């Protein structure tokens, strides 16, 4: 992504007192003024230390308790756990379902966001099960 776009994103988020999280190849994201980074599972399992300083958020994509424990050992701040439900963006991925989602987050040492086939109106259900909240793309108007 060009520097111009990064500056635009940063300006807009600061204008609205929001935060923005970078995602992509780590070597491209270093130096960006993002408030944090969202690691893919592939990135997560290859790291041996936290990739960003403690004053910035590090979020990791996880699919099971082993990956959550890896994230915790790296000092990640929170994780997404997915897919909770069937999702068009990953049609071949087996959905956890709300029961297994709850079972996993009960053992998570980190705050968990429900991801994958969830909608904004799933927030209350996710919170009742112990999640920090929900996250998404298409159901949130970001597709």
N-to-C SSE string, H for helix and E for strand = HEHEHEHEHEHE
Helix content: 25-40%
Tell me the major beta sheet: 6 strands, parallel
Q: Indicate the proportion of strand residues.
A: 5-15%
Number of domains: 1
CATH architecture: Alpha-Beta Barrel
Count the helices. How many? 6
Structural class: alpha/beta
Q: Report the mean per-residue pLDDT as an integer.
A: 90
CATH topology: TIM Barrel
Count the beta strands: 6
Q: How widely separated are the two ends? A: 18 Å
Outline type:
globular
Supply the CATH superfamily name: Aldolase class I
Write the layout of secondary structure elements.
Layout: H1 3-15, E1 21-22, H2 26-29, E2 36-39, H3 41-46, E3 57-62, H4 65-74, E4 78-81, H5 97-106, E5 112-114, H6 123-128, E6 133-134
Parallel strand pairs: 1-2, 2-3, 3-4, 4-5, 5-6
Short description:
With 143 residues, this protein is α/β, with parallel strands linked by helices. Helix content is 34%, strand content 15%. The protein has one domain (36-140): Aldolase class I (TIM Barrel).
Give an account of the 3D structure.
This protein is α/β, with parallel strands linked by helices. The protein has one domain: Alpha-Beta Barrel (TIM Barrel), CATH 3.20.20. The chain is built from six helices and six strands, in the order αβαβαβαβαβαβ. It has helices at 3-15, 26-29, 41-46, 65-74, 97-106, 123-128; strands at 21-22, 36-39, 57-62, 78-81, 112-114, 133-134. It has a six-stranded parallel sheet with strand order 1-2-3-4-5-6. Helix 2 (26-29) links the parallel strand 1 (21-22) and strand 2. The protein is globular and about 45 Å long.
